[in-house]
Amino acid sequence: MLKKLIPFWLCILCLVSVLLCGCSSQERAEIVIINGAEPESLDPAIITGQPDIRAVGALFSGLTAPDPQTGLPVPCLAESWEISPDGKTYTFHLRPGIRWSTGQPITAHDFAASWIRLLKPETAANYANLLFAVVGAEDFNAGRLSDSSQLGIKALDDNTFQVVLRQVTAYFLDLCSTVTLSVVPIFAVEESPDQWIRREPLPVSGPYCLEQWRLNDKIRLRKNPLYWDAENTRNELVDLLPIGSSVTALNLYYQGEVDLLWDKELIPSDLLPIMLQRPDVHSFDYLGNYFARINVTKPPLNNPLVRKALSMAIDREALVERVSKGGGTPVVHFTPNGCANYDPPEGCPYDPARARQLLAQAGYPNGKDFPVITYLFNAAAGGAAKTHQKVGVELQQMWKENLHIQVDLQQAEWKVFLSMVSGLDYDICRASWVGDYNDATTFLNLFISNSGNNRTGWKSKEYDDLIATAEKEVDLKTRAGLLKKAETLLIEEAFPVIPLYVYKGVACFDTNKIEGYYPNPVDRHPINALHKKKGTADGH
Prior knowledge:
By secondary structure, the chain is of the alpha+beta class. The protein has helices spanning 2-20, 50-59, 108-119, 137-142, 172-176, 186-191, 246-254, 272-275, 304-312, 316-322, 352-361, 382-403, 414-422, 441-444, 461-472, 476-494; strands at residues 31-34, 64-66, 73-75, 78-83, 89-94, 153-157, 160-164, 208-214, 218-223, 237-241, 260-261, 281-294, 328-330, 373-378, 407-412, 428-434, 497-508, 514-515, 531-532. Strand 8 and strand 9 (218-223) form a beta hairpin.
């Protein structure tokens, strides 16, 4: 089968190559990267997708940054900090002389205003919960507290930024390295709250300036000469291409038009086993998962017995073999293996007989009288489009064969999909998550009742209390036990989600030509660390 696919893809690539020959082009950037889908936004406070995060990470910086090799936090705009003896107060000292790309000083007041903006209810930031460990943050975000001076966020002076936490948070410095907590130019935001990201020139705090953003064409980044670490930015000009087609992406890469393809969803699963044999195709483990959300507010899916039956009727081994090939590992727990200081629960294995019993207990023996439900998935870039559809087809067939129920498939464009999921206008939908930091809470916090990323309608005081208690716990073993109880509730009892598999990272680049890309657990790869080897010409 795979051998038959090769000529087909070669023909398609040749056709696209001919079509592209007549296209005009600008000066070639030193590094050209296929970044996946067009970013929804470049505002750190409201981004959600991986293409957005990768682009924004080049434009805006925070107190700390991920080390390119390990993903662990290292000093960035803050050169040092102290932590109080009780572990709850962090006092950051900004680097002297740091400036916006437009020349104005970056101060601790900018950080305070940026973080407060993130928490404001009207910002509607999906990642506001990253700051919920801060005193008053959760109440402020929920509208229960209106006075921002009561938050544990303070600029002590222009160069000293202090954060007071409700409880010890061992991974707080990891949070500070997420792009969501980057400092933004509040003076620009205040002038144009909805359009500030389109300001020219855009004031940025990161290693690159935004030279150009042409929708569905490219994001062109130019080295920021005022960045604190500009001497270690190894390239002057970088292009991020929003390519949504696997054919186009692979053609551009293998024709030498781009240097790096780092969106795994652009690689067709049918070709992955063959491509992994190439020395320029790299696979690695990282903290990311693929799962299904269930809208628990809609009958019959409001019955946990039904949701458990759906989960136990899925043969994940077969699913991964048929769909993701070498791009995933089947799991029945939600947190990926490899989260620091944590081992996930066992979960509920594939057991179609038990699944039918559960469905009968719910009132639908042998699927009788079970209504038709719909599995929603989004149109996506390249290989992901086929993957999402293939997953849907596999689930549809397994549920029909094992539970004798009918599940229809529905595809929606990305923005429509997001709107439907956020509005709980679905039955079951496809989902995925990539950890923002190396801790189980980056996954488990999704399903606390007030999380903007919950999107299932499921609320559990018991779950919320377990997570909250774990967040306050200093002893790592006790903390892990509390988190494990919470995850057990999530994927062995309540089932607002159905875990399917964890991702394998895939990137295409020639190590003889490109340096500075390192696999790490959080799949963060700072663009300013990338560079061409000396003497390397453009192309492959």
